[in-house]
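Researcher: Here's the sequence for the chain we discussed earlier.
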Amino acid sequence: MIKTDVLIIGAGPIGIACALACKKRSLDYVVVERGTLTNSLYNYPLNMQFFSTSEKLEIGGIPFISNNPKPNRDEALEYYRRVATSNDLNIRLYEAIEEVIKATDGFQIRSSKTTYHAKKIIVGTGFYDIPKLLEVPGEDLPKVSHYFKEAHPYVMQKTIVVGASNSAVDAALEIWHKGGDVTMVVRGPQIGERVKYWVKPNIENRIKEGSIAAYFNAEISEIKERSVQITTPEGTKTLENDFVLALTGYRPDFSFLETLGVQLSEDDKYFPTYDPDTMESNVDGLYLAGVICGGMETHKWFIENSRVHADIITAHIAERLNIPQT
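Model: Thanks. This is the structure I predict for it:
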């Protein structure tokens, strides 16, 4: 069994920031991640560019230098990788948390590789692993994906992109640029208001000129091998189709939070219960950090406004454990 002051679940940017903060405050810690380092960022599209500037993505006061003001996926991966390795952070990858039991003196944790006893736990698991499903017949067909990596597989193919957020717009534009036949199916009346300001006019102009087809106030009702049925204000339409990219967003693993004893709001937002002054949840000694704090409102917390959680949490833990601070 490995004994530690703090066990951090999730090795994304916020988990890494928490590890740096633990190290600064002389807290023993270990970070456990079921995937690779910054697993969510790794699974982003290859050519993705961040909305935030590089300095807003910095953690632990370590400078992030990028070629352009707004870094891309590869630059972010390089930055967080170097932060983790150059600071010799104690991170254990490809290790899933399987059970957490509250004890009088902390927590007993069983992972896929070993067991731990931690006085405190920080959960910073993000939200990219679980897509919001369409819940329509045919969604389980091989031609349907809830993730977009690159445009090449969709060249010379009829691809429907579901959604109007940044991920959907980026995918539609890239596929169109590479020679794909793109149709967008959007539940709302227009492209999302939170789409990157330098991209939004581009997609709107491509739709206006007819380069990219778009159905607004529309939803997919059924997916078939060679077609897709959609409902529109003008009635039901059947579209020839080779691939469907259902980029309708993602959600945190609420069932995991519930197994930990974290209380969620009873509405459809699933807000977890925590003290904003300390980030401690309703479970004594269990803290929440990053995007998971926003429940279904995954747009509420980003790296730039949640990186402060690391210092807030570790300061409270150090005080609770009576660890002197220099």
